[in-house]
């Protein structure tokens, strides 16, 4: 109980929507807490490896305005989604029972981590093939792994 109160007293994480604790009560089966969930926008990943993942949730957080951003809005959404997924993996993938990650967040973080590891392994294989000047095999490996962007990068790398 004291650990829960201590964790809640630390406050919300920056630029991330947090559930607000409404009330807690002790029942015969243990503590039951009720939260106010903030509104979210559901974004489905385009990556084939992450399609089995629970849909990610993003919030409308405004980044600090250091310089005007001229990127298209799709790039901004992709970078926000990637940043959210990286935070989720870092905070919840190997979380203990003491952390404030919800079970759904833990499952999503594990799925996202496995997808990121698979993508890194595929990129390593393609890079090894490119280093041996086996361009056709590198492109085929990237396509077989379901990563069209990596296949384009390999094909562009091999152009004379």
Topology:
Elements: H1 2-9, E1 20-27, E2 30-36, E3 41-43, E4 56-58, H2 73-92, H3 103-131, H4 135-144, H5 148-158
Antiparallel strand pairs: 1-2, 3-4
Biased composition (Low complexity): 51-71
Region (Disordered): 51-77
What is the count of distinct domains? 1
Q: In terms of per-residue confidence, which ranges show pLDDT below 50 for 5 or more consecutive residues?
A: 48-67
Q: Estimate percent helicity.
A: 40-55%
Work out the radius of gyration: 20 Å
The mean pLDDT is 76
Q: What class do helices, strands and sheet pairing give?
A: alpha+beta
Q: Give the spatial strand order of the biggest sheet.
A: 1-2
> How many helices in DSSP terms?
5
Write down how many β-strands occur, each being a DSSP E stretch of 2 or more residues.
Answer: 4
Instruction: Assess the beta-strand content as a share of residues.
Output: 5-15%
Shape: elongated
Distance between the first and last residues' Cα: 65 Å
Q: What order do the helices and strands follow?
A: HEEEEHHHH
Largest sheet: 2 strands, antiparallel
Q: Explain this structure to me?
A:
The protein has helices at residues 2-9, 73-92, 103-131, 135-144, 148-158; strands at 20-27, 30-36, 41-43, 56-58. Helix content is 49%, strand content 13%. The longest helix is centred in the last third of the chain and has 29 residues, at 103-131. With 160 residues, it is an alpha+beta fold. Helix 2 packs across helix 3 (103-131) and helix 3 packs antiparallel against helix 4. It is elongated. Residues 51-71 have a biased composition (Low complexity). Residues 51-77 are annotated as: Disordered.
């Amino acid at each position: 109980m004291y650990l829960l109160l201590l964790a809640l007293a630390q406050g919300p994480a920056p630029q991330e929507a947090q559930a607000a604790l409404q009330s807690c009560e002790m029942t015969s089966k243990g503590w039951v807490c009720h939260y106010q969930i903030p509104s979210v926008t559901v974004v489905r990943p385009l990556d084939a490896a992450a399609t089995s993942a629970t849909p990610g949730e993003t919030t409308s957080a405004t980044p600090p305005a250091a310089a005007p951003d001229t990127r298209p809005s799709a790039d901004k959404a992709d970078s926000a989604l990637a940043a959210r997924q990286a935070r989720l993996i870092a905070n919840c993938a190997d979380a203990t029972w003491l952390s404030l990650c919800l079970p759904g967040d833990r499952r999503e973080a594990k799925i996202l981590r496995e997808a990121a590891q698979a993508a890194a392994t595929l990129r390593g294989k393609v890079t090894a093939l490119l280093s041996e000047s086996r361009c056709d095999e590198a492109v085929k490996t990237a396509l077989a792994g379901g990563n069209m962007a990596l296949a384009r990068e390999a094909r562009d790398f091999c152009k004379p």
